[in-house]
Amino acid sequence: MSPKVILITGSAKRIGAFTARYLHQLGWNIVLHYNQSEQQACELAKQMNAARADSVKLVQGSLNTVQKIENVAQQSIEAFGKLNALINNASSFYPTPIGSVSENDWTNLVGSNMQAPLFLAQYCNATLQKNNGVIINMVDIHAAKPLNNHTLYCMAKSALVMMTQSLAQELAPKVRVNGVAPGAILWPETTLSEEDKEQVLKLVPLQKLGAMQDIAQVIDYLLNAQYVTGQIITVDGGRSIASHVKA
C-alpha cells in the first residue's frame, strides 16, 4: 500500500515544520504548504526527501482569498493523487486594538484562521471522504478566553471551534474532524520581555513552556483515534483551568 498523504498548511516553520518532520518519520507523505517562507520550505522538503525519496511535495499559495485557497487545494490533491488528512495549521497572529482594525487585518486574520480551514475542508472533502480522512484544526486556548487587544484573532479562532464541531457532524461518518488548542508552546515571533514571559508562565500550573512535540503527539493521536470526532484537545499545561496566578 502506498503511504498516506497529509496536507499541512503553513508548515515551513515552527510547529508546522516540526509536525511535518514528526509525521514524516512515522511514514506519512507530506504536502508541505507555505506562502512566503520559500527558503525554509525548500530546505525542509529537501531534508525529508533525502531521508525518503519523493515523499514530500511543495505547494505555495496565499490563503487570503477563496480562489487562492481552491488553487492550493487542487495542487495539494494532485501532488500525490489523494489526501488522507488535512491539518489547518497556517495562522496569522498579531494584536488589533479597537480603533486600529483595518480591512487588511480582517483579510489576514479571518482569512488564515477561519476562511481557509472552511474552504480547504470543502475543496478537499471528496478525496477525504474517499479515503476515510481526517481534518485537524489548530485552534487556540484564547478561542474560549479572549486575549487582550486580540479581538479579531480570538473571534476567528472561536469560529474555528464551532466549525470543527459542525463539520464533524456534517462530514461523518467517513471524515473525522477535531481540533488542537495549544497554550504557551513557542513564544510569539514578536519580542516578549523576560518579565512578560514570566507573567505568562505564572498562569500555567505546570510552570513551564510546552514543547512542539507535545502538539505533534496529540496530532498523531487524533489521526489514529477512530472513534474521536468533534473534539478540541487542549495542550496548555493546565492554563485553561487555572483559577489564579501563582506567587
Work out the oligomeric state of the chains in this entry.
single chain
Count of domain modules: 1
Shape: globular
Which structural class best describes the helix and strand composition? alpha/beta
CATH superfamily caption: NAD(P)-binding Rossmann-like Domain
- Per DSSP, the total helix count is 7
- Main pleated sheet: 7 strands, parallel
Strand residue percentage: 5-15%
The beta-strand count equals 7
CATH topology: Rossmann fold
Low-confidence stretches: none
| Helix fraction bin | 40-55%
CATH architecture descriptor:
3-Layer(aba) Sandwich
* Main β-sheet, spatial strand arrangement: 3-2-1-4-5-6-7
Order of helix and strand elements from N to C terminus = EHEHEHEHEHEHHE
| CATH class call | Alpha Beta
